[in-house]
Amino acid sequence: MTLRTSLAALVAVLIVGTAAACTSDSGDHGDQWAAPGKGQAAQLLDFSDGGRDAKVKYVAFYGFSGPSRGMTTGPDGSTYALGGKLVRLKRDRTLSVRLNRGGWASAWGIAALADNSLVFGRNGRVNKISPQGEETVLAGASGQDRTAGHPLPRSAPATAVHFTANASPFGVRPDGSILIADGDALWALKDGTVRRLYQVTAKSSDGLPLLLAQNNAMDSTGTAYLSPEREGTDVDGTLGDVVLIRPDGRLGKPLLPAKISGLPGAPATYRVRWLTGDGDDGIFVHVYDQSGNNGAIVHLHSGKAELVAHEKAGAASSKPCSITRPVDALRLPCGIPEAMTYRSGSLIAGGLANYVLQIRVA
């Protein structure tokens, strides 16, 4: 495992050609694919050259090969991956580009609504795509994007607020509020109004402002988990830096033990690559150590911390890797891809890799 900036550089892989169609079929429909059991991992897709699903690579590439800008699960169980384009991975392992239009390179964050509409940020606005493909602006004023570090109103009309360029929706609370990470602020959007729930005022140990990354999460109660990183460095924050905001507005920190069985070192010092809810009152966290190694996924729930996936020494998502059958998730021969989302007892992980993993956690 390497730092995210190093991985992004390694993903300067040029794929010659363009997608011949907007939908691709992996073809085997179970002939070679075997679903993992609890505690196991398998490659949901292997779209490397010569891989089992190589013929879908021109679609998979757009959502999963480069750095992830967002990943979520829709009500129908589809995984949506936001990369160079917005790609849909259905339960039957077929892929499609969800609106084959430009502008996705400036999009950030993705969240699914109950009607299977999708919400995302782009160019300082928060937009919605309906299941029929109609796109509307939900929030964000036109004109100059704001910069972090200035006083913000407690609330404002949704179409009057100025977001940063990287406003990132990441969850929908039980009351219908859409959570938006916006530079140094967390907003809740509902009924045409945005409310400021939190604003980062702390700085890193070296004096740099802390900003919210795009890898935040929400659990089923509506509690938001925010992962700050140092401004301008693209260096992930640590697990000890994660802040939680409950629906009643109370701030807190996840409970972390001094040690997690199977994970060397102090958990609080591990860097956070991605967060996702667990379908209940906890989250899964993709972490790695300060040296860029020991990639792992930790389950934080009910005051407990459990290791659910761990890379073997030398594994990296930038390296070719093929898993032909389910393997022990605690001894992964492949690096854990950057982003992940929870889907019916499994984690779907993709980004910065030419494969997608399914890790069965329940």
If you average the pLDDT, what whole number results? 89
Q: Please tally the helical runs, counting DSSP H or I stretches of 4 or more residues.
A: 2
Strand residue percentage? 35-45%
The major β-sheet equals: 5 strands, antiparallel
Tally of strands: 29
Q: Tags for this entry?
A:
single chain, 362 residues, mainly beta, five-stranded antiparallel β-sheet, 36% strand, globular, disordered N terminus
Mind explaining what this structure looks like?
The chain has 362 residues and is mainly β. The protein has helices at 4-10, 57-65, and strands at residues 23-24, 40-46, 70-73, 79-82, 86-89, 95-97, 107-112, 118-122, 125-129, 135-139, 155-157, 168-172, 178-182, 185-190, 193-199, 210-212, 217-218, 224-226, 228-230, 243-245, 251-252, 271-277, 283-288, 296-301, 304-310, 327-328, 339-343, 346-350, 355-360. It contains two helices and 29 strands. The strands form seven sheets. A five-stranded antiparallel β-sheet has the order 1-6-5-4-3, covered by helices on one side. The radius of gyration is 19 Å and the shape is globular. The two termini are 25 Å apart. The relative contact order is 0.16. The model is unreliable at 1-22 and 27-31 (pLDDT under 50).
How are the secondary structure elements laid out?
Layout: H1 4-10, E1 23-24, E2 40-46, H2 57-65, E3 70-73, E4 79-82, E5 86-89, E6 95-97, E7 107-112, E8 118-122, E9 125-129, E10 135-139, E11 155-157, E12 168-172, E13 178-182, E14 185-190, E15 193-199, E16 210-212, E17 217-218, E18 224-226, E19 228-230, E20 243-245, E21 251-252, E22 271-277, E23 283-288, E24 296-301, E25 304-310, E26 327-328, E27 339-343, E28 346-350, E29 355-360
Antiparallel strand pairs: 1-6, 2-26, 2-29, 3-4, 4-5, 5-6, 7-8, 8-9, 9-10, 11-15, 12-13, 13-14, 14-15, 16-19, 17-18, 18-20, 20-21, 22-23, 23-24, 24-25, 27-28, 28-29
